[in-house]
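Checklist before submission:
- one chain only
- standard amino acids only
- sequence pasted in full

Submission:
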Amino acid sequence: MSRKIEKKRIWHAIRRCSISIFMLCMVIILIKLAPNYEVNHLSDRTNLIINNNNITTSLRTDVIIENDTVYLSFDDMKNFFDEYLTIENNKIITTSNTKTAAIPIDGGKVFENGSYINMDYEIIQRDGKYYLPINKLEKIYNIEVKYNDEKDIITIDSLSRKTVTALASKNLNIKYKPTSYSKTVDKVKRGETITVIPSENQENKWIKVRSPKGVIGYIKKSNIIDEKVIREDLERSKIDGKVSIAWDYYNQYTAAPTRTDTIKGVNVVAPSFFELRSDGSIAVNVGKSGTNYINWAKQNNIEVWPVLSNSMLNNLDAVSNMLSTFETRANLIDNIINELVKIDVQGIHVDFENMNKSDKDNYSRFIIELAPRLREIGMRLSVLLTEPDGSDTWSLCYDRHVIGNVADYVVFMGYDQHTASSQTAGTIAGADWVELNINKFLGQEGVSKDKIILAMPFYTRLWIEENGKLSNRVVNMKDVKIPSNATKVWDDNLKQNYIEYKVGNAVYKMWIEDEESISSKLDLVNKYDLAGAGFWEKDRENEDIWDIVEQKLK
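Returned file contents:
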């Protein structure tokens, strides 16, 4: 009897142990599987997929769908499509890669890239917010918008981005995570087209995809066939290597210089073809000499980016008026585009200086609205900027961050540290001052290093101190003469040779720009891996300088 009881006890102990082990295994399995069966908390609202990313939780307001039209709020449009979206004079002004458009809020013709077009659209207002019909703006943003009412999913794909598709080799379950036991989020039938989503972290056996209904998940890589790229990234070509610009300045009363030989180490030239008039028109000085100049540049594989300057305008208010409205900016932009197309060049330098501080935002709008128009015709945009933290009309009139974000290149004019009106004698462009401002561009101004071109001077100033008075005059690099009685000292902070000498009661001082100083500035271009360098201006230099430019910029 006792033996039977003992056996029974052992059997119950084994049974209890087995149950415990089973329950422990179930707990482990549930813990492992639970994340793969995560509940879709977005099932109660319309999901928005932009370029294969579900951004629904990032929306500031819900999507509205009415009469087959998909509406996104102004704030969400600004967040995901155009960070510079704005409202001006009852029009929504928007830009994309190659379009600038003004859309009347109350309806009417849309102004797009210089022309009025008919568009069937309506902007609606809810709770004090404007909502834009995103599927009516497909051509402006170069996108494709689709809505799947079964899954309540909107997909928006940029037609400027790479797209890869494949076919399902059999009926497939799309999984929530890349595991066989994960939750099924959608099904595709054999032969259906799916979008393949690049994913750096995906496991080798699995691939991230988007179903025809817009659902994102995973399938085994072995279950797709006929994978192909149906669209490549449309990237704007950049200058190969470092940009190296030589400015060719001449005024409106003289002709473009005659060039016959290439300029060693230079791949861009900037002739003074355009001057701004007060009515928004452009004074053009190209003519036969300018045409010959362009042909010379093309024959030597040098790009031509003419300068558009406001130097003819002595009245700051004239520039203010020109930038004050979308219509006046659009008129100026149309004039720029027309002139550039006529002469068949590769880009433009916009050089607006001496502006009111109050024009800062409107000048940014001008650059924002000009950039897409230039991209549409395949031309580069470079904007000349002064150092940060100066005077209102010289430095504080620019939003360098916005301009640097929008333009292809920004030129930091690394001169004049000491101007003609300075009360103390000093250098034109000391290396320490130049480097300080490069760091300001990169840091406080937030401009990308691959957009910054450092411009350096081929001239200096000779300072004369006599009887308590200070005067100065410009001396070109090639014209620098060092008298026999001059004391010449290398300043390692400025990376310049300094000379001082006396003539009678006058003390002469000069911080020299020469091969050594320019070489040091080119070292800064390479130290900070900037986009390139520029030189103001051609024909002021010593000829040997171009060997250094070629060597330093490769």
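Reviewer check: Residues 2-33 form the longest helix (32 residues).
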